[in-house]
Amino acid sequence: MKHISILVPESSVLVSIGDPRYLFTAANMFLTQAGRPPLFDVNLVALRRDVGLDQGLFTVHADALIDDVQRTDLIIIPALFGDVQQAIAANEAFIPWIRRQYEQGAELASLCIGAFLLAATGLLDGKKCSTHWAYSGLFRQMFPEVCLVDDKIVTEEQHIYSSGGASSYWNLLLYLLEKYTDRGMAIQAAKYFAIEIDRGSQSAFMIFNGQKHHDDEPIRQAQHFIESHVADRISVDELAARVAIGRRNFERRFKKATHNTPVEYIQRVKMEAAKKHLETGRLNVNEVMYEVGYSDLKAFRSVFKKVTGMAPLQYRNKYSFGASN
To answer: Phi/psi class of residue 72: alpha, beta or left (left: φ > 0; alpha: ψ in -120 to 50)?
Structure first.
């Protein structure tokens, strides 16, 4: 029997508590129907017996308090809500318990921005992690020792798992279910819950707004120039000269401030503009390519797929308002 502890933190998202419980209890039902014994002992674990969520609109009754759980096999940390720094402070009593359980062999899994509470334990330092793409800048600021891979939906390293943003945590739950049972059980659960299995990237959902939460004003000026000249071909030398910084120093400062090289930043700005054009459906792929400053269709397609995980036409067919190319 696998003991699963789903945490009920203060300021957490209700569905990211209920959905893991639903999945693993449903898996027990599937196992029983197949003539196999149930595998999962699922418990909601909290700091107090009744936890009010969503400004008291909902109350979650915990099965156990952390002091009641001496040993568990898997800890699931649900998504937090609101100010993450305040949420971490409100839940700091979980941290030594999580560390102790991990040292005793428990596996850890964070859902969406539950990664912030997991990172606060220090157990993610030097390891890969994913979280909601919209919180990637804040995450990097708060936890620079963690290797954030914000395009990934599922990460796994040394028995610590994380998921990307919002409902993509279902893919991590299916991943864990397959790990503990088998592929057939994961497929059955995916069909039951109508979840697309094996989705590995959240790139197509990411909205690139540029990382401007830094104090390097010349670099911020370069960012604004890139974003206001999407259709132009801009070189790194031109950007460096515009802000009166030597190229090597400019590239170093740009990477430090934005976590992208200047070329990567230019590409991401152009691809974000291309995505918006494709979503409206008014231009075909060739026209979109010219609008964002490309003249080589092969190069445009290559960069677009690298950034979004999809070909331009595939993206348009999925996210436009019904127009066809």
So the answer is: beta
pLDDT digits (tens, 9 = 90+) for 72-113: 999 999 999 999 999 999 999 999 999 999 999 999 999 999
- Cα 19 to Cα 244: distance, rounded to the nearest angstrom: 53
Q: Are residues 191 and 247 in the same domain?
A: no
Domain limits at 245?
A: 217-319
Q: Is 164 part of any domain?
A: yes
For residues 152 and 173, is the Cβ–Cβ distance under 8 A?
no
Q: Is 52 helix (H, G, I), strand (E, B) or coil?
A: strand
Which DSSP helix (H) or strand (E) runs through 29?
A: helix 15-33
Q: How much of the chain exceeds pLDDT 90, in percent?
A: 76
Q: What is the pLDDT of residues 131-172, one digit of tens each?
A: 998 898 899 999 999 999 877 788 999 999 999 887 889 999
Residue 68: CB atoms within 10 A of its CB come to: 10
List b or e across 282-317, with b for residues whose CB sees 16 or more CB atoms inside 10 angstroms: ebbbeebbebbbbeeeeebbebbbebbbbebeebbb
pLDDT tens for each residue of 173-204: 999 999 999 988 999 999 999 888 776 666 55
> Tokens standing for 148?
């954030």
Residue 146: CB partners within 8 Å, gap ≥ 6?
Answer: 119, 124, 125, 126, 127, 129, 139
Question: In terms of domains, do 224 and 264 share one?
Answer: yes
**Strand, helix or coil for residue 50:** strand
Label the pairing between strands 64-65 and 74-77. Answer: unpaired
